[in-house]
């Protein structure tokens, strides 16, 4: 039964992950990078507040929140912004493929940090990189591809950092604190952005399907 649950969760995660970039690109084409990022993050935080305070009945812990700042900045603030910027300049399929350079970069960084190289990891990484770049070779690497590669690098750093920063709390709390950190950084950044976030007045069928959902 446990294996079935794991398989179902993995399948669901694959469906969400696989559709995330194409759907995000549709929304970005409608409202722009910053409008999309602001509204998607606000929706995430509102939903997580409900789960955290109402369903889980957890209490906000300032110590855990402060420890979550590095991870929240990297994984939930910086990486999604770079992903959104990349989608503005490249195809969703290319972005989805290139983001899989993240485990390769994580392997390389861990090898450098641990001063130990595993032959099998290097072979797998080289095969992964080769397949990815063969896929995008016909059109080459533009600014969009370069941005998604930078995002993958930062994501790899965040993944490694998440192992170093030990938070003895449940997964819901970890995600909640990191999203709050990201929202704070985005609010601090907004005065420097030239973006119109007043999209609530644009309620029509096409906008509903391509943006709000």
Notable traits:
213 residues; mainly alpha
Mean pLDDT across residues? 84
Residues in β-strands, percent: under 5%
For the record, give the distance between the C-alpha atoms at the N and C termini, rounded to a whole number: 33 Å
Measured as a percent range, the helix fraction is: over 70%
Question: What profile does the largest beta sheet have?
Answer: none
Instruction: Supply the number of helical segments.
Output: 9
Q: Report the C-alpha radius of gyration, rounded.
A: 19 Å
**Poorly predicted regions:** none
Care to describe what's here?
Helix content is 79%, strand content 0%. With 213 residues, it is mainly α. Helix 3 (69-89) crosses helix 8 (171-189). The model has no long low-confidence stretch (mean pLDDT 84).
Write the layout of secondary structure elements.
Blueprint lengths: L1 H54 L6 H6 L1 H21 L2 H7 L3 H13 L4 H18 L6 H22 L6 H19 L15 H8 L1
Helix pairs in contact: 1-3, 1-4, 1-8, 1-9, 3-7, 3-8, 5-6, 5-7
Outline of this structure?
This protein has helices at 2-55, 62-67, 69-89, 92-98, 102-114, 119-136, 143-164, 171-189, 205-212.
């Amino acid at each position: 039964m446990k294996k079935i649950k794991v398989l179902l969760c993995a399948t669901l995660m694959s469906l969400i992950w696989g559709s995330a970039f194409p759907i995000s690109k549709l929304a970005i084409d409608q409202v722009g990078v910053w409008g999309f990022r602001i509204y998607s993050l606000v929706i995430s935080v509102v939903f997580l507040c409900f789960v955290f305070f109402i369903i889980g009945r957890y209490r906000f812990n300032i110590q855990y929140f402060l420890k979550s700042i590095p991870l929240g900045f990297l994984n939930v603030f910086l990486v999604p912004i770079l992903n959104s910027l990349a989608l503005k300049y490249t195809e969703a399929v290319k972005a989805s493929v290139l983001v899989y350079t993240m485990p390769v970069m994580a392997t390389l960084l861990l090898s450098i940090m641990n001063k130990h190289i595993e032959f099998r990891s290097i072979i797998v990484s080289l095969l992964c990189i080769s397949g990815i770049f063969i896929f995008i070779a016909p059109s080459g690497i533009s600014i969009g591809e370069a941005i998604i590669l930078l995002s993958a690098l930062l994501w790899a750093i965040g993944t490694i950092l998440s192992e170093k920063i030990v938070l003895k709390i449940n997964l819901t709390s970890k995600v909640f604190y990191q999203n709050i950190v990201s929202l704070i950084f985005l609010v601090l950044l907004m005065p420097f952005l030239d973006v119109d976030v007043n999209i609530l007045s644009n309620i029509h069928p096409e906008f509903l399907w391509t943006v709000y959902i």
